[in-house]
Amino acid sequence: MQDIRQETLNECTRAEQSASVVLWEIDLTEVGGERYFFCNEQNEKGEPVTWQGRQYQPYPIQGSGFELNGKGTSTRPTLTVSNLYGMVTGMAEDLQSLVGGTVVRRKVYARFLDAVNFVNGNSYADPEQEVISRWRIEQCSELSAVSASFVLSTPTETDGAVFPGRIMLANTCTWTYRGDECGYSGPAVADEYDQPTSDITKDKCSKCLSGCK
């Protein structure tokens, strides 16, 4: 269980959030390959995004289906990467379609990125403000001259563990308020800052444990 830092939770509720940056680590060392660090964008200086002192090279990469599922089955996200110069084709042929490799997804608000990413530095830089999820490459679902797509699973699914493999975030809720997973359908109780209210138009969830209580 990951304990989400309070500063990141606060950023989630800001009226004007900073951009959310998704950073990808593809670790193929367990299947005989190397570690790769990618980001689908550059920093404001037109350079690779740096996080915790490590550069994430700009490379076309896109993930989908990473939403949490509260109905019993683990989600099966898909990771799609460019096959520029046949790079993925070569690795897939040598490393059994990359099955068994690890994918680490990091979400960071731009507000907390390393100071080196900004022309004028960044006094809010904080290397601990990240949300991490880890996945295993289960299958290469598509491979063409343009791109490659991989189906991911949680590590507990691939190692036979019985414990449910969905991501758990401490003290924060990612379900839709009053949705199927939430289960609450009563009268208005509080606004997004946990302040009591009877006004249904202001009734919102703070996305924190205190909001559920």
Describe this structure in words.
By secondary structure, this protein is mainly β. It is built from four helices and eleven strands, in the order βαββββββαβββαβα.
Tell me the layout of helices and strands.
Layout: E1 2-3, H1 6-12, E2 20-27, E3 35-39, E4 49-51, E5 54-58, E6 61-64, E7 78-82, H2 87-94, E8 102-109, E9 131-143, E10 147-153, H3 155-158, E11 169-170, H4 209-212
Parallel strand pairs: 1-11, 3-5
Antiparallel strand pairs: 2-3, 2-8, 4-5, 6-7, 7-10, 8-9, 9-10
GO molecular function, one term: iron-sulfur cluster binding
Pfam families: Phage_tail_L
GO biological process, one term: symbiont entry into host cell
Explain briefly what this protein structure is:
The chain has helices spanning 6-12, 87-94, 155-158, 209-212; strands spanning 2-3, 20-27, 35-39, 49-51, 54-58, 61-64, 78-82, 102-109, 131-143, 147-153, 169-170. The protein has 213 residues and is mainly beta. It is globular, with a radius of gyration of 20 Å.
The average pLDDT value, as a whole number, equals 82
The low-confidence runs, each spanning 5 or more residues with pLDDT under 50, are 158-170
User: What kind of sheet is the major sheet?
Assistant: 9 strands, mixed
N-C termini distance: 20 Å
Count up the helices.
Answer: 4
Radius of gyration: 20 Å
Helicity, in percent?
10-25%
Strand content: 25-35%
What is the N-to-C succession of helices and strands? EHEEEEEEHEEEHEH
Q: Numbering strands along the chain, what is their spatial order in the largest sheet?
A: 4-5-3-2-8-9-10-7-6
Number-wise, the strands total: 11
- Which class best fits the helix and strand makeup? mainly beta
